[in-house]
Amino acid sequence: MDGMIKVQRPTWIGKLAAGLFVTLMVASCGQFFPSSNTIVSITLSPTSAQIKPTATQQYTATGTFGDNSTGDVTSQVTWVSSATNIATISIAGLATAVALGTTNITAKSGSVISPASVLIVSNQTITSITVSPQNTTLTAGTQQQYTAIDNNGNNITNSVTWNSSSTLVATITSPGGLATAVATGTTTITAALSGVIGTTQLTVQ
Fold first, then answer.
1. What sign has the CA pseudo-torsion 173, 177, 180, 186?
2. How confident is the model at residue 105 (pLDDT cuts 50, 70, 90)?
3. Residue 168 CB neighbour total at 10 angstroms
4. What is the pLDDT of residues 144-153, one digit of tens each?
5. How far apart are alpha carbons 66 and 60 in whole angstroms?
6. Mean per-residue pLDDT for 51-61?
7. Those residues with Cβ within 8 angstroms of residue 51's Cβ, 6 or more apart along the chain or in another chain
8. What is the mean pLDDT of the segment spanning 199-204?
9. Mean pLDDT over residues 179-184, rounded?
10. What number of other Cβ atoms are within 10 A of residue 73's Cβ?
11. Where are the extended beta strands (E) located within 46-195?
12. 124 to each of 92, 101, 102, 150, 188, how far by Cα in Å?
């Protein structure tokens, strides 16, 4: 009948195009939404350390996965020492001091690389850390550079792990020790290395 609307069935070309479209959509979703067993970030412990020549330091790596869960990935990552003449590191994350100096320890999985952990090889022993300046007051939006000096008189500002107890009040770069005031309040700034911690208070008005 002339008044009837004809419904055209999909041709094999149309079916193929639809199939390719679905495949591409699934693939692209995989890029935006990592699978639950995909490592998306890695953190190391300790974040900084100091040992004597021939001594060892065990590192552990914690991975965050695509579903936001975390787990020990120490045996799954590739360990790297930036200066193998200072310290080497095994596939199990065990660093061995070779000579005096400093090296950066990192762990990677595919294209994901952890922040570096500073490893210092020294004959000296750290028993205290002094953070300067002490008890600073800033206004929101301003910055303060902190320094860390150990009991041996060494400037270890770029070797310690810096932390702010309240990042809502102020943040601080690590490594580096550059604090940025965010909002009114008080936060404790810490500098840590090999279990030794130095502190100061930062007030934001």
1. positive
2. very high
3. 12
4. 999 999 999 9
5. 20
6. 97
7. 57, 95, 97, 119, 120, 121, 122, 194
8. 98
9. 98
10. 21
11. 48-51, 56-58, 60-65, 70-72, 78-81, 87-89, 94-97, 101-109, 112-113, 117-121, 129-132, 136-138, 143-145, 147-150, 161-164, 170-172, 178-181, 185-193
12. 27, 12, 13, 10, 27
pLDDT score at 37: 82
DSSP state of 46: S
Give me 2's structure tokens. Answer: 């002339």
Cα distances (Å, whole numbers) of residue 60 to 39, 44, 45, 93, 114: 15, 6, 5, 7, 11
The answer to whether 178 and 169 have CB atoms below 8 angstroms apart is no
Q: Which domains does the chain have, with CATH numbers?
A: 39-121 (2.60.40.1080), 129-204 (2.60.40.1080)
